[in-house]
Here is the input.
Amino acid sequence: MTRPLKLITDPTPELASAREFTHAMSALAAGVVIVTCSVDGRPWGMTVTAFASVSTDPPTVLVSLGSESIGARAIGETGRFGVSILAENQLPVAHHGSAPGAPKFLERFVAPRDAASASPAVAGALAHLDCEVSEAIRVADHTVFVARVRAALAAQSGSPLLYHRRAYRTLADPPTERSTRCLAN
Here is the structure.
């Protein structure tokens, strides 16, 4: 028997500090992506790790961006964005898209426009998803964009760039055998 989820509307007075929360979350390794959009007709991109697949039917993803960021405002206006999943050799792109306060125009990093994608795609990325916003939800100081994937392009090989303990990393070990067995069973 499943119990309905309880929505908590009032935060408890005893919340983790931002420092404690940030330190704890740094333990979670995440793939590094560049969320792309157009700003003043030019390709723009922000490095993020707050990205996830939501569903395969229909293909849906989510990304969380600071609500007042240039990218979040541009995506809110157009309802479109791209997600380029970075390869291990794309550290310069990740640094460019994460530089605080710096313009994040991507001309030197983007691939020529592909007819399958309406959003700018990072050249050499492991994959690129072209997305159309279906929902935008304001949560604290961020906006979570839930989007349908209109096009998905993927490279045939390559290893991802990762972020763990506040540092970019790569896969040091070869992949383990793939299992379809659920570990919870």
